[in-house]
Specification:
globular; Rossmann fold; seven-stranded mixed sheet; alpha/beta
C-alpha cells in the first residue's frame, strides 16, 4: 500500500511541476519531430566542430543526438523545467556523452550569458521567448554564429533561410546568423 501511495504522490508532484513550469515558460516541453531533427542536423556541416547550445533542451531529443553526431564538439543543453531536466540527467546515466553538459538554467535571467565560444545554437522555443533572448544572442555571440530555430522565428531578425518541411508538427525551420 505504501508503494502505491508513493507512486501516486510521485505522479501528482511530477504532473504539478510540469503544469507550473508550462505556465511559467508559456510552453510545454515538446520534443522536436524526427523529420525536423534530421533536417536541423543536416543544416550543420558534417565536419562541424565547436560548441553547440540547445536552448530549451526539454527531454534531450536534440542534445543527445547532437553529442553523438559531433563527438568533437561540446554540446550544452539548457533547460529550466525540472521534470525534463531530471529526465535528461537520468537518460545520461544510460547514454553517457562526455561532450554533453546539461544545465538547469533560466536563460532569461540577467545573470545568464552565452559562452563566447559558441559556434551554433539550436532551439525549439516560441517566438516570445526568442524575442526576449535576442538581446543576449546579439550581445554574447560572435557575429555570424549559426542559429537554427525549429518552427518559430526570431522577431526582429531576418532569416538567412526558411526551410519548409513536410511535417504537421514542425512545418518550418528558420536559419539565422547573428548580426
Amino acid at each position: 500500500m505504501l508503494l502505491e501511495y508513493s507512486f501516486l504522490a510521485f505522479v501528482v508532484i511530477t504532473c504539478s511541476l510540469s503544469l507550473i513550469y508550462c505556465a511559467v515558460t508559456g510552453i510545454s516541453p515538446v520534443p522536436s519531430s524526427r523529420n525536423s531533427k534530421k533536417h536541423m542536423f543536416n543544416l550543420l556541416p558534417a565536419d562541424f566542430a565547436g560548441e553547440v547550445c540547445d536552448l530549451g533542451a526539454g527531454w534531450g531529443s536534440l542534445a543527445f543526438p547532437l553529442a553523438r553526431k559531433f563527438p568533437q564538439s561540446t554540446v550544452y543543453a539548457y533547460e529550466i523545467s525540472p521534470v525534463p531536466w531530471l529526465a535528461m540527467q537520468l537518460r545520461r546515466l544510460f547514454q553517457f556523452r562526455r561532450n554533453l553538459t546539461i544545465e538547469r538554467v533560466n536563460m532569461l535571467k540577467k545573470s545568464f550569458s552565452f559562452r563566447a565560444e559558441t559556434k551554433a545554437v539550436v532551439c525549439y522555443l516560441h517566438s516570445e521567448a526568442l524575442e526576449k533572448l535576442r538581446p543576449k544572442l546579439e550581445r554574447d555571440l560572435a557575429s555570424g554564429t549559426l542559429i537554427i530555430s525549429n518552427v518559430f522565428d526570431i522577431p526582429g531578425w531576418q532569416p538567412e533561410a526558411v526551410h519548409e518541411i513536410e511535417d504537421a508538427f514542425c512545418p518550418q525551420i528558420y536559419v539565422y546568423r547573428v548580426p
